[in-house]
Structure prediction request, 190 residues.
Amino acid sequence: MRRWLPYVIGLPIVVAVVAFVIVRLDAPVDITRLISRDTVPTKKLPDADGRGQAPSVSEELLKLRRIHQLRPLARSEDGKKLQELQEGIYGFSTCGVESVRATPSAGFSLEVHKHHDRIVYYVGYASDGDIEKYLARQKNFHILMSIKPEERLSSLFEIPVDFVAKCEARPAKDGDRFDLFVAAIPELQS
Prediction:
């Protein structure tokens, strides 16, 4: 017992010092981040003029993630191959979706969703005309997709990766655009 006595007496002092530092800093504490050490914090990305800004996500995209009950990638999953990841996640990838990252970055800025039914989707903003081609089940057409809404590309859209025959990144001044070529949309099975 005597061997543990210094530790038992010292513990309240350590707790008091930590509490004092937190209160003294007068900074809000994100309890969820402290509790869940497996999540990746939001990184600031350079915007068009080079200043660091937190990536903004539209309410519409947040709603889509909630509807499909998707969670962000955990730190331990960052950079893994898509096949290794469980269903019900979203992340960011390149065309072809080899691996998935927790945050958008150079080359990894196309949002992908892996639904609970194991179908993987490219998610972004497209023009109403391109979406109409998709809904009409046309063959051999392109869909230009952006990671954020723009004047021409203003409608949130998701398309199964398996429907896309070819995907090419098109770097632009204000963020990447992705040219998705759809050769044919497979028939729905009943």
Q: What stands out?
A: The first strand starts at residue 45 and ends at 46. The chain is about 25% helix and 25% strand.
